[in-house]
Amino acid sequence: MPAEAPIYDRVALIGLGLIAGSMSLAMRRGRLAGEIVGTARSAETRDIAREIGLVDRVVDTAAEAVVDADLVVLAVPVGAMAAVAEEIAPHLKPGATVTDVGSVKRAVIDAVGPHIPEGVHFIPAHPLAGTEHSGPRSGFATLFDNRWCLIVPVEGSDRDAVARLEAMWQGLGAHTDEMDADHHDLVLAVTSHTPHLIAYTMVGVADDLRRVTDSEVIKYSAAGFRDFTRIAASDPTMWRDVFLTNKDATLEILGRFTEELFALQRAIRTGDGEQLFDYFTHTRAIRRGIIEAGQDTDAPDFGRVKPE
Amino acid sequence: MPAEAPIYDRVALIGLGLIAGSMSLAMRRGRLAGEIVGTARSAETRDIAREIGLVDRVVDTAAEAVVDADLVVLAVPVGAMAAVAEEIAPHLKPGATVTDVGSVKRAVIDAVGPHIPEGVHFIPAHPLAGTEHSGPRSGFATLFDNRWCLIVPVEGSDRDAVARLEAMWQGLGAHTDEMDADHHDLVLAVTSHTPHLIAYTMVGVADDLRRVTDSEVIKYSAAGFRDFTRIAASDPTMWRDVFLTNKDATLEILGRFTEELFALQRAIRTGDGEQLFDYFTHTRAIRRGIIEAGQDTDAPDFGRVKPE
Ligand SMILES: NC(=O)c1ccc[n+]([C@@H]2O[C@H](COP(=O)([O-])OP(=O)(O)OC[C@H]3O[C@@H](n4cnc5c(N)ncnc54)[C@H](OP(=O)(O)O)[C@@H]3O)[C@@H](O)[C@H]2O)c1
Ligand SMILES: NC(=O)c1ccc[n+]([C@@H]2O[C@H](COP(=O)([O-])OP(=O)(O)OC[C@H]3O[C@@H](n4cnc5c(N)ncnc54)[C@H](OP(=O)(O)O)[C@@H]3O)[C@@H](O)[C@H]2O)c1
What is the pLDDT of residues A222-238, one digit of tens each? Predict the structure, then answer.
């Protein structure tokens, strides 16, 4: 869906990893931006970005990157957002939109919001797409195709600026929905954050168990385990920040999870087959409901997308 | 790899669900059996099997099915194996091989072994392949292609009979390995049984949480959750039996799992980013090791296979 004119004349990407890189490639595909300027923390990443032409222009600092930008995208780990916001604040163009792609929203709003000057629109967002890879070489243009991007407007967000950002995400290939920050954090704790923690844990357990070798674990994982290891390969910094900043919702879901797990564990220990059967019958019905509602495809990809 | 002559003249399939049905279709593909006779508990399943021609001949009882069979495959839930073994025992042909496809091995050996008459070979096996579907219409010929089938010979198993069964499984498309029953049960507790229990639990939690709707959970599960619901749709009887019969290994792995999960939960609660970062870095290294060892492909399929 190539736009007739670019949606933003100049876009600044702060951070040049999986998400920012994929945005740049998808923006080019859709001709959504007049010019794409990018920067990253390390000289190494900036050099790679220059070498592979990931963006139109690589600059050395975030302050420089945002000059004259109509859209500024914060694509760094959640815990790094506040410092970046503080750095760029004095250089933002009046009327510009600042957005982010962080996996947690309340914490980003609290960290970034106070730095945004009057006359600049701050509209948080979160594209629900990723892979276990990271860094400047990991992006690809189709990452967001047919995925959701949740837009999380804050108190007083300008409707025109929100509509423009949604048009951008649709141009990147995504479907968009608006959601409140706290609800976003709870939904993601259920659908992504807690499952990731569980997968990390299960991989750690397997590795600890010296009586079963890693190679056996992988070779014979007909069901269940391989995707856990894939998840557990995701970027440690990103996930550390997710759990530290979506602490309350994650702890709530974890609490419920261990409660139910203990009930099942007890049923196993006492040999209560009826309870197990009933529980599994119930969850099967949930899955049926999902399929009847047409909300799943047959592709078991653990939410991950493959380049091409 | 079509055999020159059938590996077994007559094969009896006891149970006509996903595994038996797939075996029948794959045996035909490879011309591995002279005649395939099958039976199931319910008249309904037997009728469907007749209607779709799932096997060459459908009979009404297991006792009838095994008459003159060179290979008898027990393809019923693990908890149903003992009764089936007792029923067929007097009708087994001397020199025949009895095998099973149960997901747990020690319990099957204990339940079936005592019923096997002198002169009949009992060689347990477990194909590491499945989908979340079950019943006589769920099988397909390619289910076992490039999957592992673990052969678990018991004390005194005849080597020729073992070799012949391995040739059968290779003809069905699988790679074969031999493994001791207790080790099998521990490895599977790590790679399959505990991950399945965790997935069931996570789906139950999401459904309990009234503040997040099922449709949100699915719609927005960019990572982690969809495959959990797929797993949680697996057959309740089969999984009840797995947990009841692989109790010790599952409880051991669950114990370790909750121990580690609590350590991570505590790190989240206390804001110990360093511990989280180190844990995630460690599990990432495990995944790297796996990829370097060439033991994973890029297909994130949660161990499941799709028909065609
Ligand atoms: N990966 C996913 O699955 C996914 C999905 C949706 C949303 N997100 C969110 O998207 C954001 C970026 O993730 P990503 O996957 O693109 O990560 P990534 O590939 O690791 O890239 C992160 C970028 O941020 C920079 N950075 C890291 N720490 C920084 C710091 N302290 N200060 C300034 N810059 C820093 C890095 O610079 P250097 O390269 O120079 O270190 C790199 O350019 C995160 O907030 C994450 O929560 C990720
Ligand atoms: N599904 C997997 O992912 C998978 C993978 C590897 C191994 N296995 C093992 O393979 C075996 C069969 O599983 P499946 O997936 O093929 O199951 P399935 O599709 O549900 O079929 C089970 C068959 O067993 C029969 N059966 C059920 N309860 C019985 C009982 N009490 N007495 C006699 N027959 C009974 C059923 O007959 P009716 O249709 O008449 O009820 C049906 O024909 C199980 O031991 C399982 O552990 C399964």
Answer: 556 777 777 788 899 99
What does the domain layout of chain A look like in residue ranges?
8-179, 183-292
Assess whether the region B8-179 and the region B183-292 belong to the same CATH fold: no
User: What is the Cα–Cα distance from B165 to B170, expressed in whole angstroms?
Assistant: 9
Which of B220, B295, B296 comes nearest A191 by C-beta?
A: B220
pLDDT 10s digits, A109-146: 999 999 999 999 999 999 999 888 999 999 999 999 99
Mutate to test the interface with B, among A178, A211, A261 (most CBs of B within 10 A): A261
Q: Which two tokens stand for residue B156?
A: 């005194």
CATH architecture of A183-292: Orthogonal Bundle (1.10)
Give the CA distances from residue A135 to residues A16, A38, A143, B198, in Å, rounded to whole numbers and listed in that order: 7, 13, 14, 31
Confidence check: pLDDT of B304 > 50: no
ipTM field: 0.90
- Judged by DSSP in three states, A13 sits in strand
Per-residue model confidence (pLDDT) at position B301: 41
Which of A13, A25, A76 maximizes ligand 1 atoms within 8 Å of its Cβ, making it the mutation to test the pocket? A76
Give the number of whichever ligand sits closest to the CA of residue A48.
1
Q: Residue with structure tokens 């999984």?
A: B239
Across the range A58-84, mean pLDDT stands at 98
Q: Is the pLDDT of residue B219 over 50?
A: yes
More confident residue, B223 or B172: B172
Residue in chain B lying closest to A299 (CA): B301
Looking at CATH, the fold of the domain delimited by B8-179 is given as: Rossmann fold (3.40.50)
The pLDDT tens digits of the residues spanning B50-75 come to 999 999 999 999 999 999 999 999 99
Alpha helices (runs of H) in chain A, residue ranges in sequence order: 18-30, 43-52, 62-65, 81-88, 106-112, 159-171, 181-188, 194-208, 214-219, 226-231, 236-245, 247-270, 273-292
CB < 8 Å to B191, chain A: 206, 216-217, 220-225
CA dihedral A66, B222, B187, B160 (to 10 degrees): -120
Of B264, B277, B293, the CB nearest to A201: B264
**Structure confidence at residue A203 (pLDDT):** 87
